[in-house]
Specification:
This protein has 317 residues and is an alpha/beta fold. The protein contains eleven helices and twelve strands. A six-stranded parallel β-sheet has the order 2-1-3-4-5-10, with helices on both faces. It has a two-stranded parallel sheet with strand order 6-9. A two-stranded parallel sheet has the order 7-12. The longest helix has 21 residues. The protein is globular, with a radius of gyration of 19 Å.
Length: 317
């Protein structure tokens, strides 16, 4: 069990990843807290590497958000995600890190990639416009990882999770993703007795969702078992329309009002579903938590932590 540093280890996914590794017997884990280490700054990255002395680095830290946040902050999302990853990978290489695990995003796939998304189609087009700056910043880190492996023999791997959800997600409506945003909207509408809830877009796009604990297990398995330059999809392989998803969440919450769709708001990518066969073949990962069960767990968590969840949270994971 080598020394490990997990950036973003205090975030939504990061906390689950830390717990997953600890449960598997990894005990020497360093999490550089955002208040102590600004990973956009080279000196701060050097400080984290000096303090943590990691042999393995898992880079989860990211500035993230839903469609609204991506539209409002394309420059910030591009720069901060790119600069964090580029500098961290380079300084990790110089520090003699044995393995670097870069977590990418499904948002980097082309807007009209054939469904299910296969890793071989990753470069066959431009990402969906509303999240392209974020997706391309992450995509460049695959280029860096492969270039470093080729030139320096640096053991860097690249994983692409689909949309994540689960307990302790970010429920701030300004920056949250679709599942936590809908949960909060429906709960508040039920409490207020509101006859309708407005939903963005047409409801026709599809998405794939992965429960956060499944994602954490995938990262552990890949860290322990995978050592190739090829990117790997991390997903459930299951596709659901936003309309059907919204109706599922409303049912779990117990909201009986009407859903009103606003087609003036963007739909985002038309379809999204991953081919997850490479992850299963290379390191034995397969999602275990069905969407209906995961939604029930997430709604239950929100209802138990409603007051603190209304305060939102940082978009940095």
């Amino acid at each position: 069990m080598k020394r490990m540093m997990i950036t973003g280890g205090a975030g939504f996914l990061g906390r689950r990843v830390v717990a997953e590794f600890e449960a598997a017997g990894w005990t020497d884990i360093f999490v550089p807290e955002i208040d102590d280490y600004d990973l956009r700054a080279e000196d701060s990255i050097r400080g984290a590497l000096d303090d943590g002395k990691p042999e393995i680095v898992i880079h989860l830290a990211a500035v993230v958000g839903g469609i609204g946040a991506n539209r409002a902050h394309p420059g910030r999302f591009f720069y901060e995600n790119a600069i964090m990853g580029i500098q961290l990978m380079e300084l990790s290489r110089l520090a003699g890190v044995d393995k670097f695990v870069q977590v990418g995003t499904v948002c980097a796939y082309p807007k009209f990639a054939p469904t299910p998304f296969r890793e071989d189609d990753f470069w066959n087009g431009y990402p969906e416009e509303t999240n392209a700056p974020y997706g391309l910043a992450k995509k460049m880190l695959l280029v860096q990882a492969q270039a470093y492996r080729q030139e320096y023999g640096f053991n860097s791997i690249y994983l692409m999770p689909t949309n994540l959800y689960g307990p302790a997600d970010n429920f701030d409506l300004e920056i949250s993703h679709v599942i936590p945003a809908l949960i909060r909207k429906f709960v508040e509408a039920k409490e207020a007795g509101a006859p309708t809830v407005e939903c963005w877009g047409t409801g026709s796009p599809t998405r794939e969702f992965l429960y956060v604990d499944d994602a954490a297990r995938a990262l552990r398995l890949a860290t322990e078992r995978y050592d190739r330059p090829d990117p790997v999809n991390i997903g459930s392989g299951q596709e659901v329309s936003i309309k059907d998803l919204s109706e599922k969440i409303a049912e779990v919450v117990g909201y009986e009002g009407k859903l009103v769709w606003d087609p003036t708001k963007p739909d985002g990518q038309p379809r999204r579903r991953m081919d997850t066969s490479r992850a299963e073949a290379e390191f034995g990962f397969k999602a275990e938590v069905p969407l209906d069960e995961g939604l029930c767990r997430t709604v239950e968590w929100f209802l138990q932590h409603e007051d603190e969840s209304r305060l939102g949270g940082s978009s940095a994971e």
